[in-house]
Automatic annotation (TrEMBL):
Gene: rpmI
Lineage: Bacteria, Bacillati, Actinomycetota, Actinomycetes, Nakamurellales
This protein's name: Large ribosomal subunit protein bL35
The UniProt record lists the keyword Cell membrane: no
GO biological process: translation
Pfam name, any one: Ribosomal_L35p
Keyword Disulfide bond: no
Biased composition (Basic residues): 1-15
Length: 64
């Protein structure tokens, strides 16, 4: 049987945690940061979880 290939696009965007949850980087932190307040940029920093309804589809793309 041939092996399944991981979808390279989703593997760059989504990370699997140790407990098996899927996380991705939040939006709004790439550009135009001067006009956003420091409070706002701190809040949008970091990782966000993938919605439970999307998780099975993304896991299939990752080959999990």
């Amino acid at each position: 049987m041939p092996k399944n290939k991981t979808h390279s696009g989703i593997s760059k965007r989504v990370k699997v945690t140790g407990s098996g949850k899927l996380v991705h980087a939040g939006s709004g932190k790439r550009h135009n940061l001067e006009k956003k307040s420091s409070r706002q940029t701190r809040r949008i920093d970091g990782v966000k979880g993938i919605a439970a309804v999307d998780a099975p589809r993304i896991k299939r793309l990752l080959g999990i």
